[in-house]
Amino acid sequence: MAKASLETARTSRARSVVNGWSLPPPQIGNFGDNYALRAAVALGRLAALPADETMYLTYVGDGSPIAGTQRWRLVFKAGELPPADAFWSLSLYERTPEGRLFLYDNPLDRFSIGERTPGLSPAAMAA
Asked: How far apart are CA 121 and CA 54, in angstroms?
């Protein structure tokens, strides 16, 4: 019963979606007495920092899960990198059937990329 309640809390949290990216609830990391949200976050990951420390975005696109059967490319237009006072990174997680998130094991042994990743370079934009 408790596990079902956590799953309901995890999936029913009101989230804003902007350009296919789901934003976390505003009280993430500062849970106060919202024990359901605190427990749902603990189920999926170890913890969450508050929004003034970090921003956790989840790509939801059109609602279909992202699959590794196709290639994906994230392109930022010139001068439109993510706004960050320190750094930004993009990590790939897999969700287990229980709802837990783990870094995705991959043959490159690469678990995140960001502006500090060696070898990234700007590409010409197709018209």
From this structure: 24
